[in-house]
């Protein structure tokens, strides 16, 4: 090994010893071997300084500072380093020569090292303190900047928000209010800066100020209400108000934050829509919707009374038809005004249900039960003529009045009763009021029920036909039968034609029902033809509506052909009233039927406006004398006046070549008298009541009245 | 109430900070008396505590150099603390002068200091963020400007996970971080292990109390609990081991007993 290599080896061994001594007290993240590499050049510098005095100071200070650089910052590291240098530097790194001199230099090197270490450590400590202080300052100013930015953003949000924002102390002092809020209150003049507790409005919901109290006492975190305020000009500002409690870091209540959304417009719109939905556009009166709300409230209250007037103008359709709808509308407006002026007391309201129908509702009327002062007032109010387009129109009305205690009937039932009663007033001639009574209501309701049940009844085959014999007065033989329809009603039992024919006539169901009766009766007549008793004529009633129906002739012909009955065996009975004022168009189908051989009988003759002259142009071959003429002949001797009348009619009929049938023959005396007077045919309970077809030829021949 | 994103946290240097306490352990002077007082108290309970922190740094140094050796030269150090000697930036640059480094810490003073140290360096940056909101870290402007996230990145979570309580779901945070990384990225983490501390239970409890008092409570986790952080990555040899045993460069027997008071491991993202 060369001297140089040997010196390097000794240096490395010194550095190894040094690193082993120091490593445990360093804070480096390097390995000991790496530290040894770091110390090696220091060992070299120290070694050189042992032999060269000029290097002494620099090398010592350098080594001291280098230790700090190598993160041997624990003073123990210096102590150990000095120990190592003191013990091993001269030994491992000394040169040949004066050992004492080298030891002295080594001691001085240690002094320099210590000084260099201390200076480096002090510099480093100061620099690091400086840098961490700067970092803290930087961080703080970054935070301050961010706070400022955030403050700016918050300000922008606060001022630019579309809702009004106010921050107030717990005692209600307004600390901040944004521009929107100031604008909402109508400008700067408004005391936005006044205390929150003064923001009272008479329309405040009762609980608003309780909520406020709970919030400021910290018992509630927030509340949301609809609240009105006074604007600076005295008008009302409606808002959705949300108030939240703001607490400090320790949770203590500190401020209240109020957010106000202006809902005035929306509210007005809502009110207007509500008004439009509940009021009649023409008259401005409450409409059906609002009336029903009120009526329901009025009649369902647990205690109290109500009175309802249902008014329908008499003859309003004529006004509309003759003067036009515009005039009709003006008339309705005037009527509405008059009605309104009648019902001004608290608890009274007038509404228009539609068309010319009005209602007046009184809650807890002071009338005696069964009286209606209001109805009287209404009729009185309508008495003065109404001037439309220079014409003085007389307006009359029919009123149905329902009154009674609340809590018994629902609104629909009450209104129906009033409606029924109004029709009663109308049928009684109009320009009056009637008071509701349960019996008329029940009748009307049954009528209504039967009307609606009719179509289904026809489909289900609930109708059947009974036959009443027509007896030849000359020889007492059964010559024919009148077909009479019956309704086997599932609830009401067997109903006679007077109960449902007018209803069927009214709804138009009479046409199919009439056809059905005609078909059944013709079929039965055909059946009788084949029996021992010989051919029988069949009488079938035809109602006015059937007469107007264009299919009458075709249907009749079709049925006769289908069933195989000659037209001469059929007699259609029409009431006199159905033919009053009949023009040629209406008579044409009858003439055609008569030409075919079908007999036409004039039923109930003598009850209507018996236009004898008219008889000549009617295609009639039979007169059926109403029972009112023959009632006086039930006794013996017969009423002489009745005898004269019947005698006259029979003479007239026969001179016109018409045969005469009498109805309602109930006694033998009657039958005898009528035979003597020349009547041709008779029917009535004396002979037989209407019955099933197989009983046709069984005659009772007993007096039906006693 | 949750602090809104636009309201910054205040700075209170009268409260000790973990990063400055650890700087003091490592012989630094980037600290204030409150930090030193807390550090002295903790060391009073666990005299070898600085050695553990030092072992954490030594592990970091080995792991970073190994990562560079694997070709990963981008580093995202979360919980970087005060960048004293042997920090990631220094080590990585020593291994590869072109290395890119982003330092993240939730301590604004540590971040401010890092910024000063890294000033003018375009391939490095620092910002304040919270490990519990990993998306904010990955999407931060500094991250996206300094790092190329389409290429592998080594994410360091050294000495930080034991400060995150399970209630804040650090597992999900770590998984989200890994999810945001390119395949081949590395997850480098360490975690304290209470039962490996060569001191009595009393000492450990005392030190834990000191950390709690500086608002940095320590969370105890078993080795299995720590290993779960690496579930989403493939562990590299030698796995999750006591700090000095991870790819040692010197005789493990020479290590200070406190150096074994924590686990370290590295995983590779698929």
Q: Could you describe the 3D structure shown?
A:
Chain B: This is SAM-dependent methyltransferase. The complex is a heterodimer of chains A (706) and B (270). Chain A is an alpha/beta fold and 706 residues long. Helices cover 49% and strands 20% of the residues of chain A. Chain A has 23 helices and 21 strands. An 8-stranded mixed barrel of chain A has the order 13-14-16-17-18-19-20-21. Chain A starts with a helix and ends in a 24-residue tail after the last strand. The mean pLDDT of chain A is 88. In chain B, helix 5 (108-118) links the parallel strand 2 (100-105) and strand 3. Chain B has helices at residues 18-25, 33-45, 49-69, 88-95, 108-118, 134-138, 141-146, 170-179, 201-213, 223-227, and strands spanning 74-78, 100-105, 124-128, 154-157, 186-192, 234-235, 241-242, 262-268. Chain B has one domain: Vaccinia Virus protein VP39 (Rossmann fold, 3-Layer(aba) Sandwich), CATH 3.40.50.150. Chain B is built from 10 helices and 8 strands. Chain B is α/β, with parallel strands linked by helices and 270 residues long. In chain B, strands 1, 2, 3, 4, 5, 6, 7 and 8 form an 8-stranded mixed β-sheet that branches. In chain B, helix 1 crosses helix 2 (33-45) and helix 3 runs parallel beside helix 4 (88-95). The chains are: A alpha/beta (706), B alpha/beta (270). Chain A binds chain B through residues 24, 27-33, 71, 73-74, 124-126, 128-129, 131-132, 134-136, 138-140, 142-143, 146-147, 149-150, 153-154, and chain B through 6-11, 13, 20, 25-32, 50, 54, 57-58, 60-61, 82, 85-86, 91, 108-113, 115-116, 249-250, 254, 256.
């Amino acid at each position: 090994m060369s001297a140089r290599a040997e010196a390097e080896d000794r240096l490395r061994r010194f550095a190894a010893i040094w690193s082993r001594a120091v490593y445990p007290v360093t804070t480096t993240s390097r390995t000991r071997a790496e530290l040894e590499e770091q110390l090696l050049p220091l060992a070299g510098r120290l070694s050189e300084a042992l032999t060269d005095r000029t290097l002494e100071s620099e090398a010592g200070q350098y080594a001291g500072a280098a230790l700090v650089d190598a993160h041997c910052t624990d003073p123990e590291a210096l102590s150990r380093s000095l120990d190592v240098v003191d013990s091993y530097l001269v030994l491992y790194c000394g040169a040949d020569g004066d050992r004492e001199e080298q030891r002295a230099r080594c001691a001085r090197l240690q002094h320099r090292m210590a000084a260099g270490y201390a200076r480096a450590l002090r510099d480093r400590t100061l620099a690091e303190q400086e840098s961490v202080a700067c970092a803290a300052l930087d961080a703080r100013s970054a935070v301050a900047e961010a706070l400022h930015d955030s403050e700016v953003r918050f300000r922008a949000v606060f001022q630019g928000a579309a809702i009004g924002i106010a921050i107030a102390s717990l005692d209600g002092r307004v600390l901040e209010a944004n521009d929107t809020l100031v604008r909402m209150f109508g400008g700067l003049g408004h005391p936005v800066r006044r205390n929150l507790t003064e923001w009272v409005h008479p329309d405040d919901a009762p609980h608003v100020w309780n909520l406020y109290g709970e919030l400021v006492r910290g018992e509630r975190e927030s509340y949301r209400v609809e609240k009105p305020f006074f604007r600076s000009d005295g008008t009302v500002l409606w808002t959705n108000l949300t108030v939240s409690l703001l607490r400090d870091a320790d949770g203590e209540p500190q401020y209240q934050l109020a957010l106000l959304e202006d809902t005035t417009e929306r509210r007005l719109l809502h009110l207007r829509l509500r008004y439009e939905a509940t009021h009649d556009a023409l008259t401005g009166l409450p409409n059906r919707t609002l009336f029903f709300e009120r009526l329901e409230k009025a009649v369902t209250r647990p205690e109290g009374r109500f009175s309802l007037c249902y008014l329908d103008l008499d003859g309003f359709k004529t006004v509309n038809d003759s003067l036009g709808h515009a005039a009709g509308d003006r008339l309705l407006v005037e009527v509405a005004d008059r009605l309104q002026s009648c019902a001004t007391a608290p608890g009274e309201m007038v509404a228009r249900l539609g068309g010319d129908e009005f209602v007046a509702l009184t809650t807890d009327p002071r009338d005696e039960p069964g009286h209606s002062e209001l109805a009287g007032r209404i009729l009185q109010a309508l008495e003065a003529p109404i001037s439309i387009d220079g014409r003085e129109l007389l307006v009359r009305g029919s009123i149905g009045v329902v009154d009674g205690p609340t809590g018994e009937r629902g609104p629909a039932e009450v209104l129906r009763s009033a409606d029924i009663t109004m029709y009663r007033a109308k049928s009684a001639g109009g320009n009056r009021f009637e008071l509701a009574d349960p019996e008329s209501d029940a009748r009307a309701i049954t009528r209504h029920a039967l009307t609606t049940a009719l179509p289904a009844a026809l489909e289900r085959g609930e109708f059947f036909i009974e036959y009443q014999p027509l007896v030849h007065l000359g020889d007492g033989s059964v010559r024919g039968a009148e077909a009479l329809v019956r309704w086997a009603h599932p609830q009401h039992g067997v109903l006679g034609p007077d109960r449902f024919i007018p209803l069927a006539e009214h709804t138009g169901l009479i046409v199919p029902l009439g056809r059905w009766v005609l078909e059944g009766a013709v079929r039965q007549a055909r059946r009788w033809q084949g029996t021992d008793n010989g051919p029988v004529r069949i009488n079938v009633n035809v109602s006015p509506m059937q007469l107007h129906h264009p299919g009458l002739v075709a249907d009749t012909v079709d049925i006769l052909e289908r069933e195989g009955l000659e037209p001469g065996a059929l007699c259609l009975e029409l009431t006199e009233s159905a033919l009053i004022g009949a023009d040629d168009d209406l008579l044409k189908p009858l003439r055609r039927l008569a030409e075919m051989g079908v007999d036409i009988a004039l039923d109930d003759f003598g009850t209507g406006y018996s236009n004898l002259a008219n008889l000549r142009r009617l295609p009639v071959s039979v007169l059926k004398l109403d029972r009112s003429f023959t009632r006086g002949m039930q006794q013996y001797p017969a009423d002489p006046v009745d005898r004269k009348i019947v005698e006259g009619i029979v003479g007239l009929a026969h001179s016109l070549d018409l045969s005469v049938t009498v109805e309602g023959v109930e006694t033998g005396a009657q039958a005898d008298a009528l035979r003597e007077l020349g009547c041709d045919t008779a029917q009535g309970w004396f002979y037989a009541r209407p019955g099933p077809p197989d009983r046709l030829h069984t005659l009772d021949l007993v007096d039906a009245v006693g | 109430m949750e602090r809104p994103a636009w309201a910054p946290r205040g700075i209170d240097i009268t409260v000790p900070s973990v990063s400055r306490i650890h700087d003091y352990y490592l012989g630094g002077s980037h600290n204030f008396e409150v930090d030193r007082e807390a550090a002295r108290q903790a060391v009073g309970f666990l005299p070898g505590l600085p050695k553990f922190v030092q072992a954490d740094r030594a592990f970091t140094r080995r792991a970073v150099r190994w990562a560079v050796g694997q070709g990963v030269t981008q580093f995202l150090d979360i919980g970087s603390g005060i960048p004293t000697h042997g920090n990631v930036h220094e080590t990585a640059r020593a291994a590869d002068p072109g290395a890119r480094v982003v330092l993240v810490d939730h301590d604004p003073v540590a971040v401010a200091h890092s910024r000063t140290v890294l000033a003018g360096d375009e391939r490095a940056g620092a910002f304040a963020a919270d490990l519990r909101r990993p998306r904010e870290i990955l999407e931060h402007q500094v991250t996206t400007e300094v790092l190329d996230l389409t290429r592998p990145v080594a994410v360091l979570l050294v000495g930080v996970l034991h400060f995150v309580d399970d209630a804040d779901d650090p597992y999900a945070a770590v998984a989200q971080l890994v999810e945001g990384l390119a395949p081949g990225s590395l997850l480098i983490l360490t975690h304290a292990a209470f039962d490996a501390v060569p001191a009595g239970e009393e000492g450990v409890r005392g030190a834990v109390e000191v950390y709690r008092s500086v608002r940095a409570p320590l969370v105890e986790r078993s080795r299995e609990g720590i290993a779960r952080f690496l579930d989403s990555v493939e562990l590299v040899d030698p796995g999750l081991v006591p700090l000095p045993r991870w790819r040692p460069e010197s005789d493990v027997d020479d290590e200070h007993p406190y150096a074994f008071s924590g686990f370290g491991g590295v995983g590779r993202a698929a």
